[in-house]
Amino acid sequence: MGPPGVGKGTQAIILSKILNVTHLSTGEILRHEIKMNTKIGKIAKSFIDHGNFVPDKLVLDIISEKISIKISNEGYLFDGFPRTIPQATGFDKLLIEMGNNLDAAINLTADENELIKRIIDRGKSSGRSDEAIDIVKKRQKIYWDQTAPLIDYYQKKNILKNINGIGEIEEITERILQVIY
Ligand code: AMP
Is residue 3 assigned to a domain? Predict the structure, then answer.
């Protein structure tokens, strides 16, 4: 978890290799569906382009399908999921059905103004349709309204790990590895 622009995707890619787990980014999956112009992609685009969250059911169906496929490695690293309380409770149900559990919820933290600056710089080269300034600000607000309550949710489950997301990429990876081992 962490607000848009904090570096979740970058850290998730590095960590999934180190930990030998499958990286599942709902944002990446949705962007792929949009690129392929699928039915899911068309629905997702109408939400993402306006900086809104895609409906919980659609996201839960995607995750459910992805994790039902048997894999041979050590597990999964979820990037950008769950993002709302209904997604988290739906995910808990899925995990129970599978006889599985979450080891940790990593929360990357950073100053909001620094993030808005970072994300707009990234938008200049990423070509992402959701990185214009007004949309970025809206995504930040939605994060604080809808995703930040998950911090409390995972704190109560005793699996929350707060990590300072400001610093060099390697430094942040190291901080995360220290709290999950
Ligand atoms: P991300 O790449 O994680 O920043 O996601 C980009 C956009 O995809 C988000 O701003 C949402 O519109 C959508 N999205 C990604 N993951 C989710 C999710 N778990 N729930 C709802 N919408 C999502």
Answer: no
- Between the CA of 49 and the centroid of ligand 1 the distance, in Å, is 11
CA dihedral over 147, 151, 156, 158, signed as positive or negative: positive
Q: Whose CA is nearest to atom 7 of ligand 1?
A: 27
Reported as a single tens digit per residue, the pLDDT across 23-67 is: 999 999 999 999 999 999 999 999 999 999 999 999 999 999 998
Torsion (CA) 104, 5, 148, 15 in degrees, nearest 10: 0
Indicate whether residue 6 lines ligand 1 (CB < 6 A): no
Query: Cα of 153 to ligand 1 centre, how many Å?
Result: 19
CATH of the domain at 98: 3.40.50.300
Atom number in ligand 1 closest to CA 139: 10
Q: What is the pTM of this model?
A: 0.91
Strands 22-25 and 105-109: unpaired
Q: What Å distances lie between residue 35 and 24, 25, 140, 172, CA to CA?
A: 17, 15, 24, 31
Expressed as residue numbers, the domain containing 18 is: 8-176
CA of 156 to the centre of ligand 1 (A): 24
Q: Per the domain annotation, does 2 fall within a domain?
A: no
> Does residue 30 belong to any structural domain of this protein?
yes
